[in-house]
């Protein structure tokens, strides 16, 4: 709309303009002489033209606005032949289906995860048209539901560096992704475009991985060829725990989802063993009974290794209980592949190719075990208990034990164990002054807490309870005559 006003403009002239709906308003003025324009909304507030503007653009709402043309105020000059050009157009709004100058896309909504979120193209999508239609340049694998798998054989080849993208609607679940590349090698990446675009969940150079995904949403499996690939076999498999079938991504499946029965959430419970039957049969370590000071438990059993082993692990365990705090030694032999005797308590585990010596308390379960790498078969283990080296008695806040001087030296790896009863909560300080050598020391509490340090002195909070203090030679011998003192201060 153009307005021509031949009336001279001395200082200012106002015009009221009606608007039927909110619009982007453009006003441009020209005249013989200097003029400027300003716009005021229906409430009388200036919304544009605070300076000496000949043209303004502003979004205004209905029902009207005021246009003011101003002449200079510093002299008596008048402007004549004023021409006003007014335009009203659709205001730029994200979500209206029209692509404005500052928008990458507009699909008619503000919702995300559909390719166009807040008028920005989401990762991996391509958008076009008004309203925008957004599609990912991918192969759609559909939706993965419980107790199912999605398979796709892609016979289109890839050259080195080329990508193929597969889209998947994934559940709140754990699932496995595998991509077999034929004729060449490829890496596989799992991407989540929400809530953070291009957020990488995991990447695998082997083409297979297991992941637990904690939100229902759209995932992308991106395959990148590192050499020429002739075809791809893509499979995504969901986990259904409790159906009694041992699926690829489960450690066990005993046919239920009851916790604490050896197979909890289709994962083998700590210290349990589950076989590969369907459903899985799980068992706890065999109970060997009690072990007194000066006694030895002998284990002679064939060992069945379930499947290939790639790491050291306790393949078989036996449970026993001590009659008193003791130094426990595990020795043994095994035929077949390499092996390690093992010993576990509630606070510490250890393995050694030589006889393993440790200290433990009565009143808690202890375990002897065999760890293997390979096809170890017949096992012979001996578990013996000997008295600790000394009982330091009881200790209360403000007290110290009498200095204990060891008359003999300790060879590297050799240790002494001392029992102490702390009668109340205290800051316990253990000090072992040695004429020659650096001790590797530790303190183990009957409640399961423990501390280990290299050096002759350490303080920690403990009590009430029993404490076993260990003094061991580290990488060199400890000379005879080292002195051990334990004191207790306020906690």
What does this structure look like?
It is a single chain. By secondary structure, this protein is mainly beta. 0% of the residues lie in helices and 52% in strands. The strands form twelve sheets. Strands 13-15-20-17-18 form a five-stranded mixed β-sheet, with no helix packed on it. A hairpin with a 7-residue loop joins strand 24 and strand 25 (282-283). The termini are far apart.
Tally of strands: 43
The number of helices is 0
What topology, given as strand order, has the largest sheet? 13-15-20-17-18
CATH topology of the largest domain: Jelly Rolls
In whole angstroms, the N-to-C terminal distance is 86 Å
What count of domains describes the coordinates?
Answer: 4
Largest sheet: 5 strands, mixed
By secondary-structure content and strand pairing, the structural class works out as mainly beta
User: How much strand?
Assistant: over 45%
Residue share in helices?
under 10%
Gross morphology is: elongated
In short:
The N and C termini lie far apart (86 Å). By secondary structure, the chain is mainly β.
Looking at this protein, list some descriptive labels.
491 residues, mainly beta, Jelly Rolls, five-stranded mixed β-sheet
